[in-house]
């Protein structure tokens, strides 16, 4: 049985970026490096600005991930649903690539008759449960997010509860932006459980800029740092799913 | 603009026919039954027969749910979920949909039924549900997203049925879909690993929901809050021992909870029988209250008889 690792960035934000690189471009870069970018847009009391919404969708689209805009109260369920959907999507991509190899150039799961599709899906489900998962959570802590942070924290604990019921291993890391001196601050390095999320998390708040692009870029560096040696060994950089020995 | 950016909403007008790409079956849409995060369910006509058709633009949802329905239908004679009739794709212009046709379960939603027919039915329906869950668990599945909205009561014979198998998960995996109020993880009372006690927690919360139709928000969470809500509610209070066991994962099998619920019904009767303390008090009580008490006692006996009658009918139905 092969063991792989899925890599995701989960961006939680409530609005538009206004500083540094284009976040959509940074998401495209992430995708090229085998990291999916998912975005959750936390709605400001009933109003949703078109521009922010568009950015949220574009980042996920470019990043090969899933996006969802929600009210604060719905956050817990959404965070875990988005993460799972994105996992399934990634795994389906992997399975599709294998199908193409076995069955010829243009065959995807959707092209199979429903009965065969069911069998292939069992493989996806199995992988979904056993695959290892690295999620880097990137939280916007700009002033307007201030009151939402306790809920974000709860949603993250809930996410680790859900994912830790799987057979595969999970690693989480938490970054917040904007940082005091830099664009982004690392709050927690890779850990199997989010229970240890520092309590200062709920009280974080920083004014001014929203450097979403630079934050994604920095998050990506955190992934590649760990993988630099292995990255040199695998010529094929565009795999979303990395097989390890 | 919808809040949900995962799906693009679609509407199929009544009277429209959809034809499967692979099996060429034709379904005539009659009306929309409901829609959720993963698709729309329509009532449709197929070969003069009423069927329910679930349509989604995400073929993974359809594949996943039909896999479960197929596995469930292998379990013969057990009709927990709707039976699966057909799986196919429907292409219209450049849009592609996947769908499956299933048995149309005609009835009333669980809470509505209880509201209309009375609390007497709560125990009966829960007993039915628990024996269905027992067989589901024995086949290696956990229902997952168990909640009143997913329970339909069919009339004559009154029977509880589950719809929406989207959350049904193989034992040992992590629960696929859940609803916070009925999820033990949300209340801080256990993991989201698929095991029988996960479903039994939800069953307990369904009983709680019957007495709190509007549900209630999590405050401190944990067993403290739930116990408080149970004890302070008339009628619900009497279930306390069973609910506490289910909520804290003490039942490992549905049949254990079922047995407790059954024998508890009988115990209740014994308690209310006019035993010594009651007799001793009679002389000092005004006649009116005595009458009331006898009436209450008769009522309990009557309810008990009705429950046993329905129950034996149910058992009989199961055997027959
Ligand atoms: N087999 C069936 N027979 C009769 N009615 C059905 C059947 N299946 C579904 N329905 C009706 O359609 C509604 C929507 O069903 P469905 O289970 O797809 O979605 P949901 O529970 O609302 O949400 P989700 O897709 O997010 O799980 C149900 O609440 C029910 O009223």
UniProtKB/TrEMBL annotation, chain A:
Q: Which CDD domains match?
A: vWFA
Database matches in InterPro entries: VWF_A, vWFA_dom_sf
Domain of life of the organism in this record? Bacteria
Q: Name one Pfam family in it.
A: VWA
Report domain VWFA positions. Answer: 1-91, 134-245
Protein name per its UniProtKB record: VWA domain-containing protein
Taxonomic lineage is: Bacteria, Bacillati, Bacillota, Bacilli, Bacillales
Automatic annotation (TrEMBL), chain B:
In this chain, ATP is annotated as bound at: 54
Please list the GO terms describing molecular function. Answer: ATP binding; protein serine/threonine kinase activity
Which portions of the sequence form the region Disordered?
272-291
Pfam families according to UniProt = Pkinase
Instruction: State the superkingdom.
Output: Bacteria
Please give an example of a GO cellular component term from this record.
cytoplasm
Q: Respond yes or no to whether keyword Ligase is given for this record.
A: no
**Keywords, sorted A to Z:** ATP-binding, Kinase, Membrane, Nucleotide-binding, Transferase, Transmembrane, Transmembrane helix
| Gene3D superfamilies (UniProt xref) | Transferase(Phosphotransferase) domain 1 (1.10.510.10)
Q: Which residues form the Protein kinase domain?
A: 27-303
PROSITE patterns for this protein = PROTEIN_KINASE_ATP, PROTEIN_KINASE_DOM
The record lists the membrane-crossing segments as: 295-316
Q: What is this protein called?
A: Protein kinase
State the species of origin. Fervidibacillus halotolerans
